[in-house]
Amino acid sequence: VHLTIMLKYICVFAAWVHGDPRKVIYPTDSYGQFCGQKDTFNENKTILFYFNILKCASPVVLINLQCPTTQLCVSKCPDRFATYIDVQASYRYKPDQWNYFKQFCKPGFNNPRKSVAQVLRDEDCPSMIIPSRPFIKRCFPDFSTKNGVLTVANQTTFKDGRGKTRNVTDLREAANGINNVLDARSVGMKIFEDYAISWYWILIGLFIAMIVSLLFLVLLRFTAGVLFWIFIVGVIGIIGYGVWHCYWEYDHLKGIPGSDLTIYDIGFQTDFRVYLQLRQTWLAFMIILCVVEVIIILMLIFLRNRIRIAIALLKEGSRAIGYIMSTLFYPVVTFILIAICISYWAVTAVFLATSGEPVYKVMANQTLCKYANLTCDPETFNTTNVTKLCPGAQCTFAFYGGESLYHKYIFIFQLANAFVFLWLVNFAIALGQCTLAGAFASYYWASRKPADIPLWPLFSSFGRAIRYHTGSLAFGALILAIVQLIRVILEYLDHKLKGTQNSFTRFLLCCLKCCFWCLEKFLKFINRNAYIMIAIYGKNFCTSAKEAFFLLMRNVVRVAVLDKVTDFLLFLGKILVAGGVGVLAFFFFTQRMPVFAQEAPALNYYWVPLLTVIIGSYLVAHGFFSVYAMCVDTLFLCFCEDLERNDGSTTKPYFMSASLHRILGKKELSPKKA
Questions:
Q1: Which is it for strands 157-159 and 165-167: parallel, antiparallel or unpaired?
Q2: What residue numbers bound the domain in which 106 lies?
Q3: Which terminus of the chain is more solvent-facing, meaning fewer CB atoms within 10 Å of its CB: N or C?
Q4: Residues 318 and 338 placed together within one structural domain of the fold
Q5: CA distances (Å), 505 to each of 387, 400, 492, 501, 517, in order?
């Protein structure tokens, strides 16, 4: 815990001292100044203007992530076509045009007598302006489509101010597909409108999902066995039909020419329908299905008692939740804690990412300039010989960075911030699991249910977890966070090396990713059960993990059966909740319910609230069912401990329910009241 706090303080201190979120909020001009920042020269100039947006189609943009042209902060985007040549030629008798054009020149420039060649070389003013509109605080051409033709201000061509007539498609290429983004913005506005008028009904749909999830959990004590056996009978019936169909096809092909050939005789065929004309194919299918059918039936025969125990534990879990209903709403606490962790990590990451100093680079019009892309100092740039060797070269802002020791280790700070984030998130999840396990363990170990259950079992368990088990939970979260960080690094390396042709490197990375994925799944399983043992006995993490692991290994078949039965029923419940509420929402939002036809809102896209309701319902069901899964896992470990610690005598009575007694065929010498 102390290590977590120390790492977090180091990252936060470095980020808040050197970071500057304004670099994310405001666009930056060629001089490293923020557009629209208060109490500066650019306070009223909130939009970034590109002198020559045609240069934004240059490959330099991909190299430096910066358009190689002068960028200026302006108060508004141009609303007309104009070229500097035309404006300068007429500035004496049309001063209004000059006054309008010069607001897009460099600050302080007001010398129309300067030759056009020198103005364009020094980039004092843009060679042209075109009708634009602001998007993400930058001026982009105001594209529109007229009769299927791309236009800007109803024109398909324009003068570039250098003696050429260009097509507006050149602007579209330079804007890098900005028209598609603008279309996406239009769709986004419509989606926002749909949310604005349907949010009330979306909340009602999620509330219905919550009620249905609660009912499903409560009714599991009566329907768990029925649902499971219906599914099993259905699977056996489907496989049985498959066996019959394969036999029918096998018998039907008898006597047909060519059907007695073997698969080896015809070899490999791209059209797999050829194999369906062979009797041998259907015979193989029939044998495989028969083997699967026999295996399932034998498993049901030999595992029948364990399946009955699993179903009984599911019913017991439903009963336990019925007594401790407050546990169903604990996921809200976990959600809030994780949201705080995400917010804190995001803010720190932004400060770290913006903690660099402005870096300026030489932007040259000539592709063969040897100084291109080299760093420069804007204050001394005009005194160097770069402008002589590369006429028209500019020392413009490129990005935020630095060469100091601190800037070299920003990536390390980001990794440390990510590691602490993973640690805190895993700790929040561990705290929730330990809290729920303690509440449900108090139910199981109560001699008389519900009389002996503590008054506030959830709050009592939460208090114990915070007061006594913080170190154990943090240690378990630390182990998991280390593995997850390694996985993140492997994904990063895989992304960086994706273009490499080294097959061995790709194979090694793939193996490492697979191994650490398996390790993470195993650790999550171990941690989950270790937290249950911590909640029951209060021992440290290592001791609890060891005892939980060996206890599960001694009951490995029961673990497998219970895990699969639980997974199936909870998955079925999630599908039923999300599907049922989704069907109801579909008929409502498409106005196919006559009773509510007048109440349904008029939408641009009915699928927007519909998908929101379906996904939200699934997440709501997942939140409730995760509590149920934790309840079943806790009761199972308690059940296994009960069997090993007690023998049903008067001195060591069982704490399990009467239904589990009957399944095990054991009787207590002095039975308790249930």
A1: antiparallel
A2: 28-160
A3: C
A4: no
A5: 46, 33, 14, 9, 18
The Cα–Cα gap between 589 and 325 comes to 33
Q: Could you tell me the pTM of the whole model?
A: 0.66
Indicate whether 259 and 149 sit together in one domain. no
Q: Within a domain: residue 488? A: yes
- 424 in the same domain as 385: no
Residues 106 and 243 reside in one and the same domain? no
Last residue of a domain, one of 136, 160, 184: 160
Beta bridge partners of 362: 395
Last residue of a domain, one of 138, 160, 182: 160
**Tell me: the pLDDT tens digits for 336-367?**
888 888 888 887 877 777 666 677 788 776 56
pLDDT at 65: 41
Do 465 and 565 belong together in one domain?
yes
pLDDT, one tens digit per residue, over 174-189 is 554 444 444 555 566 6
| CB-CB contact of 103 with 125 (8 Å) | no
pLDDT, position 483: 93
What distance in Å separates the CA atoms of residue 210 and residue 67, rounded to the nearest whole number? Answer: 51
- Helix boundaries (H) for 445-555: 457-468, 470-496, 503-537, 541-554
**Residue 89 domain-assigned (yes or no):** yes
The average pLDDT across 130-155 equals 80
Alpha-carbon gap, residue 348 to 418, rounded angstroms:
10
Residue 198 lies in a domain: no
Q: CB–CB of 130/141 below 8 Å? A: yes
How many CB atoms are located within 10 Å of the residue 178 CB? Answer: 19
Cα separation, 307 vs 319, in Å, equals 18
Do 247 and 333 lie in a common domain?
Answer: no
Residues 415, 394, single domain; the answer is no
CB atoms within 10 A of CB 644: 11
- According to the model, what pLDDT value does residue 35 have? 85
Strand, helix or coil for residue 218: helix
Establish if 343 belongs to a structural domain: yes
- Contacts of residue 268, Cβ cutoff 8 Å, sequence gap at least 6: none
**Tens-place pLDDT, residues 441-480:** 998 888 877 777 888 899 999 999 999 999 999 999 999 9
Rounded Cα distance between 335 and 195, Å, is 23
Q: Where are the alpha helices (DSSP H) in 445-469?
A: 457-468
Residues 390 and 453 in one domain: no
Torsional sign, CA 26, 29, 34, 39: negative
Residue at 44: amino acid letter: N
Domain count of the fold of the chain = 4
Say whether pLDDT at 8 is over 70: no
